[in-house]
Specification:
- The protein is mainly alpha-helical and about 220 residues long.
- The chain has one domain (about 10-220).
- About 70% of the residues lie in helices and about 5% in strands.
- It contains eight helices and two strands; from the N terminus they run H-E-E-H-H-H-H-H-H-H.
- The chain has helices spanning about 10-30, 50-70, 80-95, 95-100, 110-140, 145-165, 180-185, 190-220; strands at about 35, 40-45.
- The chain has a two-stranded antiparallel ribbon.
- Helix 2 packs parallel to helix 5, helix 2 (about 50-70) runs antiparallel to helix 7 and helix 3 runs antiparallel to helix 5 (about 110-140).
- The model is unreliable at about 35-40 (pLDDT under 50).
């Protein structure tokens, strides 16, 4: 067990640095631009603005996974680790806030989109942090390595529902269980029904993880 990390600890800073650099790169690749070379050639750069938003959602979720793994090794009871986990994710959200404010120009006329995306990203990041937290503690209790499994689950959670939603026989709403697909729909002004599905699924998964953590805590106390 280790001491709990503060949001300014060196181990936490690595995740924040990755978040800042990757989101900054995503923002650069989202900004339309044109260049004239000696008035003879015009180069048009017309990227999609969602490059930044999907990068932001993915990296904040990955930060949640990093912090969940770290929190599983803190010398704290499970329930006392959760507020600290939330604080780490909130800090990650705050440090990319300037990027988010700048990205408003990429989505003109849709002022609520960034608020919805930010709230959704926070939920998803917390969801992934709880999954990583539970899985790491489960593995250590059984002397099993879960590192690759955690990132496999992360990748499958992002891509599998989206892929399933492309199959004609599968209801399209399944794709909204993918944070990437849900984030994309939010940036495209999702309907109220789509928002309800995306947010409800994230909240349900968080609730399932919290119930699992509570049960495992009770079992450990009973031993």
């Amino acid at each position: 067990m280790t001491r709990p990390d503060s949001v300014f600890s060196s181990s936490a800073a690595q995740g924040y640095f990755l978040l800042l650099v990757a989101c900054g790169g995503g923002l650069l690749f989202s900004i339309p631009a044109g260049a004239h070379v000696s008035n003879l050639m015009e180069v048009h750069w017309n990227p999609s603005p969602v490059v930044f938003h999907l990068t932001y959602l993915t990296l904040l979720s990955l930060l949640g996974t990093f912090r969940g793994i770290a929190a599983a090794r803190w010398d704290l009871q499970a329930w006392k680790s959760l507020p600290r986990l939330g604080a780490h994710i909130l800090f990650g959200q705050l440090i990319v806030l300037p990027y988010m404010l700048f990205s408003r120009a990429l989505l003109p006329g849709r002022p609520l989109v960034l608020l919805l995306l930010g709230a959704y990203a926070m939920l998803i990041a917390f969801m992934f942090s709880l999954i990583a937290f539970r899985l790491d503690r489960w593995g250590r209790a059984r002397h099993a390595h879960t590192f690759m499994l955690q990132y496999a689950i992360f990748g499958l959670a992002l891509l599998l529902p989206w892929a399933l939603g492309l199959i004609p026989q599968v209801p399209g709403a399944i794709s909204l269980f993918s944070p990437l697909c849900a984030g994309l729909r939010i940036t495209q002004s999702a309907s109220a029904e789509e928002l309800a599905i995306a947010f409800a699924f994230a909240l349900l998964m968080i609730a399932i993880q919290l119930v699992g953590i509570r049960r495992s805590t009770r079992r450990s106390h009973a031993v």
